[in-house]
Design goal:
heterodimer; A: 228 residues; mainly alpha; B: 562 residues; eight-stranded mixed beta sheet; 15 helices; 19 strands; BOS complex subunit TMEM147 (chain A); cell membrane (chain A); TMEM147 (chain A); transmembrane helix (chain A); endoplasmic reticulum (chain A)
Chain lengths: 228, 562
């Protein structure tokens, strides 16, 4: 029963990544190498972030929302963006179109994120006899994270890889990218500052991820159109 | 060169793989019992064999779903644990289940927290008499039955109360917890109970010598004061027996202290030796007393004038009983009883005499004095009980805790015995002389009585589970040594007809589990979600045709060429 539950939560957390890879043309163009490289870049970024957090952040006794600390965390979160930039632009990719490049990078990024943040708690917790909804909610969060990562990769690729963008859309692109990049800070504010419960936070994440995905899709296709 | 390197590298790879696999196995076998909804201390029903017949609860490990008394009638309970709080106890129901040997996964009785000696403290016990009667009945039923499933006792607390209300709600809706409907699971992961190898009983005796006049070659007469200190109850880890027989031992220690004060000065030392006996094996037909008496040499036995045994003198109101086995017309018995009655009158309490004949062929020994009487030594038992208890009745039951005893009752008992002894020893015939008067330096010390009574009320003392050098027994020996001249400790084996099994307490984990149907449903939902996601992605990125082409078999070559 308990391994069954673990299996269920595992396919909820990691299944969509595999499905995304096999369903879209990514599998046809064999972009696995790109995803793996992106995952490794994520690992490096996570280590750097850890070191920075350990150096600059103070451990607070109460679980409240401290604006200064959260601001610091958000700034350190931008290291994420820097890592993504590195993965998109500096790594040598085989000849894959930009369209597929950002998807592969986003996929690898999200997969590494899920594995690092969610595999260990899942293994330790979901196998026990006691039943909680926590791991299912964590899986849903992983799904939302996948969508957000791909949108962020799309926006980032728009910012740095595409040279000719319609002038009017540039601020919108930067705004959306900013929102998606600061998503972790927003969720932690909701959880700690406003005291939302986990299901509510996960629902919010799912909703915003779909919205941002839609917006970035529109922006991407708008930039695809040859500029006038 | 290259092949060399390759094979070496391959070996290294294999070796590292072995270590990884080993690590994986360790991880897989790792902790599965993590956070539970609640974890409670539970105490198991005693398990013993008497002359080969098994009694008590024969199993210790538990891994079943929980149900309350409101289970739907006709439900199969053979893999369910019934949780029964004492307030809702239905005696006929429990009796029916046990005597008719109906199949059950386990029983968990919830006792009110006030009875716990760890947390209860001195809170007031409501409906004392009703609870006492109910617990006594339950204990007698459980101790004398052979129960083929685990039976545990636990104290109510907030965690377990919330769990129980939820279980009751589920049961009321007609879904008892099974593997397919979820609910709560009770898990006690202990090993199978093993026999206690050669249980020992330890008798402690203290000798206070009387004043021997110069040139007096004869042995001084001896008076013995005896009490048994061990207990037996349905839950051996909870069997503290404050009244039976903590009160007796505390009184004995206090009497020893008072007489040691008197005997320390040769001018006030009496012409009698005093022999104090703290015996074990009380619940088992006073087996320890019997073995102790057998170890006496003949001269000592003959020199004993009489013996007073103390039993349950902590919860009486106005009347104490002296139980004898020799007929009341016997001169010695008359003398003892008169001595006690006179003192009782002065102290404003009543003493009655009860005679119970000994039946030599009957192995049952109800009072400690009977062991003396069987060796032709005059003896009597002073007790607050008026009727002889049955086997394993009232020897440290669940309600016999600190709240059940009354320190002042013990004080008065001490005074009664001490004054009567003193009258006999010093030969005062007149009335109105009180040696151990209140406010004097020889008064019974309430603080001493209270502190020892508190200690006894927190120490379960079932003899098979007390080791040979148990710290509590050593403490008793040390305390007696403070008061008397000479202390001896005698270790004996408990009579062979009794065999006991260990595992008296454990930790219960209560898990809230989901049913199998829930997991299957979840699998179904997730499977369909992933399939929908797959189709959605294929449609949006490659087009509908690609999706359909996935399902159509690739056209065979023949068709294509044709």
């Amino acid at each position: 029963m308990t391994m069954f539950h673990f299996f269920n939560c595992a396919i909820l957390t990691f299944g969509p990544h595999a499905v995304y890879y096999s369903a879209t043309p990514l599998s046809e163009y064999d972009t696995l190498g790109t995803s793996v490289k992106a995952a490794l870049v994520y690992l490096g970024t996570a280590l750097v972030k850890l070191v920075c957090l350990a150096t600059f952040l103070q451990v607070s006794e109460n679980d409240g929302f401290d604006p200064y600390q959260e601001l610091l965390k958000a700034l350190i979160g931008f290291i994420d963006v820097a890592g993504l930039y590195f993965a998109l632009t500096q790594l040598t990719h085989r000849n894959i179109s930009q369209n597929h490049k950002f998807q592969a990078v986003g996929l690898g990024w999200a997969f590494a994120d899920s594995v690092l943040h969610r595999l260990a708690p899942l293994w330790m917790g979901a196998r026990g006899l006691e039943f909680t909804w926590e791991y299912i909610l964590q899986g849903l969060e992983a799904n939302a994270n996948l969508v957000l990562s791909i949108s962020l990769a799309a926006l980032a690729s728009l910012i740095w890889l595409r040279k000719n963008k319609p002038k009017t859309l540039i601020p919108i692109i930067y705004a959306c990218a900013g929102i998606v990049a600061t998503m972790p800070s927003i969720t932690s504010y909701l959880r700690r500052g406003l005291g939302w419960y986990f299901p509510k936070v996960v629902g919010f994440e799912l909703f915003t991820s779909l919205v941002m995905a839609f917006i970035s899709w529109q922006l991407f296709s708008a930039c695809q159109r040859p500029s006038a | 060169m290259a092949t060399f390197k390759k094979s070496g590298g391959l070996r290294e790879l294999l070796e590292s793989m072995y270590s990884v696999i080993a690590l994986l196995f360790i991880l897989v076998a790792c902790v599965e019992l993590c956070d539970a909804a609640a974890a409670v201390d539970v105490y198991r029903l005693i398990q013993y064999d008497m002359s080969g017949s098994p009694f008590g609860s024969r199993f210790a490990a538990l891994n079943h779903h929980a149900a309350s008394l409101r289970f739907p009638p006709g439900a199969d309970l053979s893999r369910t644990v019934l949780i029964i709080p004492l307030r809702e106890m239905n005696m006929t129901f429990v009796r029916e289940y046990i005597t008719q040997k109906k199949p059950l996964g386990g029983l968990l009785f919830l006792l009110p927290e006030v009875l716990s000696f760890k947390h209860g403290g001195n809170k007031q016990v409501y409906e004392k008499e009703k609870m006492k009667k109910l617990l006594a009945e339950l204990e007698q039923l459980l101790v004398h039955s052979n129960i083929p499933y685990p039976v545990y006792f636990a104290f109510e607390n907030d965690d377990i109360d919330t769990v129980l209300t939820e279980i009751k709600k589920n049961d009321a809706m007609g879904q008892p917890a099974t593997a397919t409907t979820g609910g709560y699971k009770l898990v006690i992961p202990t090993a199978e109970p093993k026999k206690v190898a050669s249980p020992t009983i330890t008798n402690i005796q203290g000798w206070l010598s009387g004043l021997k006049a110069d040139g007096d070659a004869n042995q001084l007469p001896t008076i013995a004061i005896v009490a048994s200190y061990d207990t037996f109850g349905a839950a051996p880890a909870l069997s503290v027996g404050s009244d039976s027989n903590g009160s007796g031992i505390v009184a004995l220690l206090e009497i020893a202290r008072l007489f040691s004060l008197l005997y320390s000065n040769p001018k006030t030392r009496g012409r009698y030796n005093l022999l104090f006996g703290l015996t074990s094996g009380g619940p088992y037909n006073y087996n320890g007393t019997q073995k102790w008496l057998r170890s006496f040499d003949q001269r000592l036995c003959e020199s004993i004038d009489y013996a007073i045994c103390l039993n349950s003198i902590g919860s009486w109101d106005n009347e104490l009983w002296i139980h004898v086995s020799k007929p009341p017309e016997n001169a010695y018995i008359k003398q003892i009883f008169e001595g006690f009655s006179n003192v009782a009158e002065e102290l404003d309490l009543k003493v009655g005499l009860k005679h119970k004949k000994i039946n030599i062929s009957n192995p049952r020994v109800a009072w400690e004095h009977e062991q003396f009487s069987r060796l032709r030594v005059t003896a009597a038992t002073l007790s607050g009980l008026s009727v002889a208890p049955e086997l394993f009745e009232g020897t440290g039951s669940l309600f016999d805790g600190r709240q059940y005893v009354n320190e002042s009752a013990i004080s008065r008992g001490v005074k009664l015995v001490a004054e009567s002894l003193a009258k006999h020893i010093y030969g005062h015939q007149g009335k109105g002389v009180q040696i151990f008067a209140d406010e004097s330096s020889l008064a019974a010390n309430p603080a001493y009585i209270r502190s020892w009574l508190d200690l006894f009320s927190q120490t379960p003392r079932v003899a098979p589970f007390l080791s040979k050098n148990d710290p509590f027994v050593m403490a008793l020996k040390k305390e007696l040594a403070d008061h008397v001249d000479e202390v001896n400790v005698q270790h004996e084996n408990l009579e062979g007809i009794f065999t006991f099994y260990d595992s008296t307490s454990a930790r219960l984990n209560i898990y809230q589990v989901a049913s199998v149907t829930f997991d299957l449903l979840l699998l179904l939902v997730l499977g369909s979600y992933l399939i929908v996601l797959f189709c959605f992605l294929v449609i949006t990125t490659r087009g509908v045709d690609d999706l359909i082409s996935l399902f159509r078999r690739p056209p065979s070559r023949k068709v294509k060429t044709a």
